[in-house]
Amino acid sequence: MTSTATRISSFSGARSLTRLAPHLLTAATFLLLFYRPFSLLAWDWWHDPDAGHGLLLAPLALWLGWRAGRTGEARPQPVVGGAVLLGAVLLRYLSGLAAEVFTMRLSMVIAAAGIVLFVFGIRQLVAWWLPFVLFALSIPMPDVLTSTIALPLQFKASAIGAELLRFRHVPVTLSGNVIILPGRQLFVTEACSGLRSLTALLSLGVLVGGLWLRYPLSRAFLVAAAIPVAMLVNGFRVFVTGFLVYFVSPSMGDGFMHLSEGWLLFVIAFGILGGLTWLVHLIEERWRGAPTDA
Questions:
Q1: What are the tens digits of pLDDT across the range 243-265?
Q2: Which of 59, 81, 176, 237 could bridge across to 117 with cysteines, CB 3.0–4.6 Å?
Q3: Which residues of 108-125 are buried (b: 16+ CB within 10 A; e: fewer)?
Q4: Model's pTM, two decimal places?
Q5: DSSP secondary structure letters along 77-124
């Protein structure tokens, strides 16, 4: 009797291992292919201030995926999933040859989506859309795109700050991204362009929209609203710096005070976006509760 039970137990264990083997092989292959892009990405998260938001977004994405769980019975789509996975591997190979880091990292996200499609189907991928988008947002933008976006943001922040200074009767001349005050010049650098705060606000808009808003249009509005909020708040930061430099002390434009202004206004921008989220959520609830005509 004991021998029979032992044989049954061994058979069950072998069958379980057989079932797990494809998943273990897939995980091992994924790690082998994407170890380098992920390690480079983690290094940037830890060392690059412009990519530091990834230290929050990546674990949050994993937790949200775990919280969402499975949608129900798996409906694998091996053809579509295999095609997506093959495209991701090809992109990983080509980006490795070209030493293009952004697409190499992006291929990792595409490959994960392909695996989900292959094993679980499209419904599971839709259920996990928020974790996938958040993880994609944790990937720093390529330098070419960053430079292209940063310069117009510098000009816009400089223009908003100069207009607010003129409104407060401060004599100011604007030349590109240089604000000229009597006896002092303020140079709005790339670090002060608001690109970092814009990235964080876009990520926050995706997160709170995905968690608290119901409709795709509402979520799109919230993400789009993050752009003018970031621009206005950063322009106001330039104004505050110029105002303090002119009326208080030139040292107010540098060091700890300048850094403190940035953090304070960043918190205010978060508050504004949170208020917009609450307002849109309220509109959604009233829309749902509105009676429909027969």
A1: 887 777 766 666 545 556 667 77
A2: 81
A3: bbbbbbbbbbbbbbeebb
A4: 0.79
A5: -HHHHHHHHHHHHHHHHHHHHHT-HHHHHHHHHHHHHHHHHHHT-HHH
